Amino acid sequence: MRKWFSFPIREGDASRQAHCDFPEGTYERECGKEGFFGPASHMYHRHPPTGWSEWEGPLRPHAFDTNRVETQGTSPMDAPVLLSNANVQVRLWRTDTAMSYLVRNSDGDDCLFVHQGEGSLYCDYGHLRYSKGDYLIIPRATSWRLVPDEATTLLMIEATHGSYMSAERGIVGEHAVFDPAVLEHARIDDSFKAQQSDSESWQVMIKSRQQLNRVTYPYNHSMP
Predict the structure, then answer these.
(1) 65 Cβ partners below 8 Å, 6+ apart?
(2) What is 145-176 written as a DSSP string?
(3) Are 212 and 205 contacting, i.e. CB atoms less than 8 angstroms apart?
(4) In what order do the strands lie in the sheet with 102-105?
(5) pLDDT tens digits, one per residue of 85-121
(6) Bridge partners for 51 per DSSP
(7) Extended strands (E) in 54-171
(8) Is 156:76 a contact under the CB 8 Å cutoff?
(9) Residue 23: what are its φ and ψ, rounded to 5°?
C-alpha cells in the first residue's frame, strides 16, 4: 500500500506541538499535502507569512467587505452569489420584515449562519426560534420562511448537489466539536399552527438549476 513520506523532524527553535507554545516572537505557517487530513510541516518565522507588501498575479488574496454589498435580491434564493465553485455557493442576505412567501432550494442543502438578529423559522418540519450565532441546516427541497423579530443578516452556504453531514469523530468521541444534546429541531407547536391558512394565496420561490420559479398555491404550503 502506498503511503506518504512522513516522519517527525524538528530543527531549529520550534514548538513540540503544532499550534501550541510558539517560540517567542515567531509566527506559524502550515504547509499541508491534503488540507487538514494529510501530512504537514509547521514552520516558524520571525515575520508574518501574510506580511507581504506587494502581490502580482491571480492568486492574490481577497478580503470581502460584505457591509458594502448593496444588491440584496427579493428573496434569499436570488441574493447575490459572493463565492462559488462546483460544490458550494455562498450568499449574503439581510431582512427586517417577515417573508410573506416561502422559498425552496432544489439544488442542495442550505446552511444559514445567523450573523445578527433573532426571530422564527417556519418550514415543512415546523417552527424553530433562531438567534445570533445559530446555524440553521435546511435540507434540500424544504419550503421555509423567516419572521424576524429584529433585522437579520444571514450567511447562506449551499452544498450544491450535496448534503450536510456530521463529520467523523474518531477516537475523540461523539461529544467532540459539539454535543448532539444541544441540537434543536423544528416543532409543530402553537406558533406553527397559528400561521397556517386555507383561505390565503401563498407563493413558493423554487430555485432549481440556478433558476427561479414562482409557484402559487391557494393555501399556506407550509402545512404538513
Answers:
(1) none
(2) EEEESS-EEEEEEEEET----PPP-GGG-TTS
(3) yes
(4) 126-130, 119-123, 143-148, 102-105, 202-208, 211-217
(5) 999 999 999 999 999 999 999 999 999 999 999 999 9
(6) none
(7) 81-84, 88-95, 102-105, 108-116, 119-123, 126-130, 135-138, 143-148, 152-160
(8) yes
(9) -60, 140
Domains annotated on the chain, with CATH: 68-165+185-217 (2.60.120.10)
| Alpha-carbon span 202 to 219, nearest angstrom | 6
Antiparallel, parallel or unpaired: β 152-160 and 108-116: antiparallel
Specify the amino acid at residue 187. R
Rounded Cα distance, 87 and 96, in Å: 30
As a whole number of angstroms, the distance between CA 169 and CA 37 comes to 13
* Cell 477516537 found at: 171
Grid coordinates representing 29? 505557517
pLDDT band with cut points at 50, 70 and 90 for residue 177? confident
CA distance 150 to 33: 44
Whether 127 contacts 121, CB under 8 Å: yes
Question: What integer pLDDT is reported at residue 222 of this predicted model?
Answer: 53
Q: Identify the bridge partners of residue 159 per DSSP, sorted by sequence position.
A: 88, 109
DSSP 8-state class, residue 187: B
Report whether 174 contacts 180 (CB < 8 A).
Answer: yes
CB atoms within 10 A of CB 198: 8
Q: What does pTM read for this prediction?
A: 0.77
CA distance 112 to 153: 10
Burial of 35: CB neighbours in 10 Å, binned 0-12, 13-18, 19+: exposed
